């Protein structure tokens, strides 16, 4: 990022043509996004135990949905309140299409959630329609596979998902070069004036994440009747791993271990909620996407109606389903939601340079959101061991 900005400032328009390397990098990510989401959602739903799906699946989905909407609403509100994109106008490119997308009527918006041809939705890259189909297909597969007669289909989906994730991870190895090339183009066109909103954006996103975590800890402490201090201490290692790895997938083993040993969640709830949350629940990403969309509308001078703001929240929530859980997943999600809102895909370059830093906040919010959901469901099912909190508090007091 720094080298790219430096070259863009020093070399100016002479080096602007190197931006094509960054554009190729973005396309390599985009080419597998829809297929990856399609398979990940089917696998997550289809792999659930059929009996658990009816009761625990409903509770899990409800908690995931509520916390994700809250996170997206916080991102939207903080963006409107502190205006990270104000003071920098990058032009009116595609502004008309953005306004049209944001101001569509509710009937059309809702109807467009449902595909009339799944192959057409896949070909067009209509992610929302693909997600709806994948959810329904996953439910049907789960129901039909009660006696493992469709294990071959489920295993095929799992294997395709693993190969697609490997492909994305291979492309992400070129991220430093791709991001550097993108930043050359951005700074060559806009100079240093593009950096200030990004620093402001990170600060606002960090504060938003802090507010969200505080709300989760206070809410779960009250709901599950566990001491707040013991709760935070139990989460300390999970948050540290998430912060340093910026990967929900890498954090999952520690998350599952500490959820059981330090936060008292039973193994049954642990194995159901946390892997599913890794694939389908991304509170931090929803907050990030909502905040990014508000910032980009401000950067490009695009006005949005109340309906448009509600659409931003809805898209931020839906775009999290099945999103990549490896580092760089935020960049992948941006390639989904930015074109959907009619904003220029070139604007993704603005966020690509700070994706690792924003990924720190995203991952912490994601894993804490998943684990607090597991605690809440374990409490509902009388499968939460409260004694572990007493042990944590006792050890802390002795120290």
From TrEMBL:
Segments crossing the lipid bilayer: 24-48, 60-82, 127-144, 165-186, 198-223, 235-254, 274-296, 308-326, 332-354
Annotated coiled-coil segments of the chain: none
Cross-referenced InterPro entries: Na-dicarboxylate_symporter (IPR001991), Na:dicarbo_symporter_sf (IPR036458)
Entry's Gene Ontology molecular function annotations: symporter activity
Bilayer topology annotation: Multi-pass membrane protein
Keywords from the named record: Cell membrane, Membrane, Transmembrane, Transmembrane helix, Transport
GO cellular component: plasma membrane
Keyword Transmembrane helix in annotation: yes
Location of this chain's protein in the cell: Cell membrane
Main location class: membrane
Annotated protein name in UniProt: Sodium dicarboxylate symporter
Organism this protein belongs to: Secundilactobacillus similis DSM 23365 = JCM 2765
């Amino acid at each position: 990022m720094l080298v790219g900005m430096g070259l863009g400032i020093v070399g100016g328009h002479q080096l602007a043509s190197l931006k094509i390397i960054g554009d190729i990098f973005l396309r390599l990510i985009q080419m597998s996004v829809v297929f990856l989401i399609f398979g990940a959602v089917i696998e997550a739903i289809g792999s659930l135990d059929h009996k658990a799906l009816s009761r625990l699946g409903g509770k899990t989905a409800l908690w995931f949905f509520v916390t994700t909407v809250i996170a997206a609403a916080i991102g939207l509100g903080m963006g409107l309140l502190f205006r990270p994109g104000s003071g920098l106008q990058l032009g009116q490119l595609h502004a008309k299409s953005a306004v049209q997308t944001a101001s569509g009527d509710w009937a059309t918006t809702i109807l467009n959630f449902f595909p009339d041809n799944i192959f057409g939705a896949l070909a067009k890259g209509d992610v929302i329609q693909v997600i709806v189909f994948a959810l329904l297909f996953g439910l049907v597969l789960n129901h039909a596979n009660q006696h493992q007669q469709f294990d071959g289909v489920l295993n095929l989906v799992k294997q395709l998902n693993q190969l697609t994730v490997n492909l994305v991870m291979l492309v992400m190895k070129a991220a430093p070069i791709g991001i550097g090339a993108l930043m050359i183009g951005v700074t060559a066109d806009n100079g240093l004036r593009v950096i200030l909103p990004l620093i402001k954006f990170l600060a606002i996103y960090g504060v938003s994440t802090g507010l969200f975590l505080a709300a989760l800890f206070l809410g779960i402490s009250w709901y599950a009747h566990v001491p707040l201090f013991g709760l935070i201490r139990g989460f300390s290692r999970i948050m540290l791993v998430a912060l340093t790895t910026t990967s929900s997938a890498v954090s999952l083993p520690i998350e599952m271990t500490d959820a059981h040993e330090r936060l008292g969640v039973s193994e049954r709830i642990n194995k159901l909620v946390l892997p599913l949350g890794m694939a389908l629940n991304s509170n931090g990403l929803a907050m990030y996407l909502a905040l990014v969309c508000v910032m980009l509308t401000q950067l490009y001078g695009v006005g949005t109606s109340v309906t448009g703001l509600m659409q931003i929240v809805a898209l931020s929530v839906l775009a999290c389903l099945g999103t990549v859980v490896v580092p760089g997943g935020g960049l992948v999600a941006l390639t989904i939601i930015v074109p959907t809102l009619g904003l220029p895909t070139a604007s993704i370059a603005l966020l690509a340079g700070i994706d690792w830093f924003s990924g720190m906040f995203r991952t912490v919010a994601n894993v804490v959101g998943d684990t607090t959901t597991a605690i809440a469901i374990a409490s509902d099912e009388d499968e939460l061991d409260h004694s572990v909190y007493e042990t944590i508090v006792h050890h802390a007091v002795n120290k």
